[in-house]
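Quick check before the chapter quiz. The format below is the same one you will see on the exam, so make sure you can read both the input and the output lines.
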Amino acid sequence: MDLEFKFSPSVIALPLLFVLALWISFWVEVRFHFDFSDNGILPRTLFGLQGIIFSPFIHGNLEHLYNNSIPLLILLAALRFFYRKQSLSILGYGILLTGLLTWIIGRGNYHIGASGLIYLLVSFIFFKGIQTKYYRLVALSLTVIVMYGGMVWYLFPSTDQTISWEGHLSGFITGLFFSLLYKTSEYHRPRVYFWEQPDFDPMTDPFMKRFDEYGNFKNPPKPEEVVDETTFNATAPVQYVYVFKATDEDSVAK
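Here is the expected output.
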């Protein structure tokens, strides 16, 4: 039996609220002339540990914020819809683990932005869908890789020093780790048709009664037999009515 993915308001509310929090943080920073960059991740420093929590909500400029907002809306909605039970844990623990890895391997600069979380979501959705072998989730994985497959180039050191490839790599590794950690046994159930159920009795099924043990149709009506429509049994599960009428061509001698 196919799994039913039921829509709920949280599929829209979760990504909207999260992205709204990013925009509010940016608005506060601009409106009151704050600089939240110092609250980002500063690798291998005690002070920089605070950035593990705060860095996803801090962005350098409007373009940076916009480029992260659209993927987050799409990916968080997909995560909530297809992986409802694991979504909040992946979001919460994912931010912490991605930030911690960035703190460990990052360069000695402040790392800010939600791009690490985006890489986490892409990685988890892709690898988990392939692992389940469930056709809808595999299709989701392929869709994600088509839309965001080009992001793989930003997992490696770049000449653009403003790109935190360490944060991207940390998110990618975290997503792969979570895809192995979180078990989704409900997606591994084989498709079982009603005639494959252990309590299925072919002798009681109306359709199967029309066939013998070899699959041949039992007692098919002969073409020359005419069934009177007045004797039609309305209670029979399956009934075939053959009515043959002479045509003008039949009455012409050949």
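If your answer matched, good. The first helix runs from residue 10 to 31.
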